[in-house]
């Protein structure tokens, strides 16, 4: 760019004349010159102008994404990911055999393509025996999304959700059932662990709550990851048929964990 004072001019109609000019970076361009109150205003190199505009837009977008995340964090406090699972990531999941490597691959792909997943609301279920690393992968997906993207993610066990809703029935409670449900519906991803953990039939309260969460997310086209020790045929009993129907919409991804438990051996 030459050393003359340059002002960007966008409206060609204001342009009085054009002249050849040279940008240090991008070479020759047609410069628009506009007379304004006796001063000659010269247009910027179009390529420099385009780059500057793109940078401005990228900055604004990043800022907006950060603001959304901060707003959700403020609403939920520090409890997005429980402390116990805060260090879990897909990177520190140890895949020791083929089944685990395959499960890890599915979860990596889910996070990697999360922009599309978020658009289609495609859900995922991690099913299989206890102690096979499902929780690590589920919390890891939530952590990785929170750390490396502008998406928000929440990891919760069904038990902790039911308990926090019951606690709102206490008069002194500040939270309401609606605010708790909203905090589970709003995030880009919800990882719902320990579905059907009790051997007994789920209570009406449990089924109603699960449906409110799953259906609330479904209506907003938001994906949910469900983790359970049950098999696929038992899931409708534990969650209710209607819940599983919502999860299936858009092609539910089922990741089976069929190998034996490593818990105890590794002390996990
Ligand atoms: Zn230029």
Bound molecules: zinc ion
Provide mean pLDDT, rounded.
Answer: 85
- Our measurement of the CA-to-CA distance between the termini, rounded to an integer number of angstroms, reads 62 Å
Q: How many individual helices?
A: 9
Sketch the major β-sheet. 5 strands, parallel
Strand order, largest beta sheet: 5-6-7-4-8
Q: State the oligomer.
A: single chain
From the helix content, strand content and strand pairing, which structural class follows? alpha/beta
Shape estimate: elongated
Helix-strand sequence: EEEHHHEHEHHEHEHHE
CATH architecture of the largest domain: 3-Layer(aba) Sandwich
Number of domains: 2
Rg calculated over all Cα atoms: 26 Å
The helix content is 40-55%
How many β-strand stretches? 8
CATH class descriptor of the largest domain: Alpha Beta
The fold-level CATH name of the largest domain is Rossmann fold
Protein name: DNA replication protein DnaC
Organism: Pseudomonas soli
Domain AAA+ ATPase: 120-250
GO molecular function: ATP binding
